Amino acid sequence: MDDDEYDPIAFPPPERTEPAKLYLIGPQDVGGKFPDRLKAALEPGIAAAFQLRVKDGDDHALARLAEPLQRICADADVAFIVNDSMSLAKRLGADGVHLGQSDGDIREARALLGPGAQIGKSCYDSRHLAMEAGEACADYVGFGAFYPTTTKPSHYRPDPSILTWWSAVFEIPCVAIGGITADNATPLVKAGADFLAVCQAVWSAEDSRAAVLRFEAALNSFHDA
Q1: What is the pLDDT of residue 225?
Q2: Where do the H-state alpha helices sit in the chain?
Q3: Does the annotation mark 152 as catalytic?
Q4: Residue 168, Cβ density class (10 Å: 0-12 exposed, 13-18 middle, ≥19 buried)
Q5: Which of the chain's ends, N or C, has fewer CB atoms near its CB within 10 Å?
Q6: pLDDT of 59-71, one tens digit each?
Q7: CA distance 205 to 167
Q8: Catalytic, out of 39, 110, 122, 221
Q9: Are 157 and 176 a contacting pair, CB within 8 Å?
Q10: What pLDDT was estimated at residue 143?
Q11: Average model confidence (pLDDT) across the chain
Q12: Which of 16, 90, 91, 152 is labelled catalytic?
């Protein structure tokens, strides 16, 4: 099937029974005081996952940085996900891995990390890629960037209706990614996003806990849909 076979606008918004959750994407610098900032961000209990996304350094150095963060996530019952690297996820005993389109195969990750691992796949603005990820038994698919972003600049700009289409057709959760703030998140939740992937909106704030709490209204916005 290709992207032209479905018109996502034809699907009604999903009937939600619970709020969306935050999926926190870590900044490049996770040393220094960052563990304390992560702990504060997780205190409200509205984040379900944290992704370690450090783009340089060898696995030994990254493992050392990851140790306190992984412990904080475990204490908060938050999934600890590694970006891109199956080998690092395996080494850390992480809860899962998030794969871009060039970062390896979902089935390969499943064989390496085991049946309990949470494996996500970036699908950008493509229903076709998302369906392929679903067929490979991904645990979630990511769409975006919905808004301009400096974390991972992207020319992809899916319409929020792709979230509605996915939620109507598939049971696998979907994550909205890219430039999401507390001010622009509501349309994505109402469209069907199960998770909002957020980076700069939290870590650029002086108070990470307060920044997370700013998303609470958006995450619950389905109540007045």
Answers
A1: 46
A2: 34-42, 59-75, 86-92, 106-113, 127-135, 161-169, 186-191, 200-203, 208-213, 216-219
A3: yes
A4: middle
A5: N
A6: 889 999 999 999 9
A7: 31
A8: 122
A9: no
A10: 98
A11: 92
A12: 152
Residue with tokens 């507390």: 182
Provide the whole-model pTM: 0.93
At 110, the amino acid letter reads R
What mean pLDDT do residues 172-200 have?
97
Is the pLDDT confidence value at 57 over 80?
A: no
Both tokens assigned to 51: 């992704």
Residue 89 token pair: 């996820």
**Three-class secondary structure of residue 143 per DSSP:** strand
At 124-163, the pLDDT tens digits run 999 999 999 999 999 999 999 999 988 777 788 999 999 9
Dihedral sign (CA 132, 134, 139, 144): positive
Asked if 24 and 196 count as a contact pair (C-beta separation under 8 A), the reply is: no
Name the pairing type of β-strands 174-177 and 21-25.
Answer: unpaired
Residue of 21, 39, 53, 121 marked catalytic? 53
Q: Is 25 helix (H, G, I), strand (E, B) or coil?
A: strand
- 174 closest CA partner among 146, 210, 216: 146
Q: Give percent of the chain above pLDDT 90.
A: 82
Q: Is 53 a catalytic residue?
A: yes
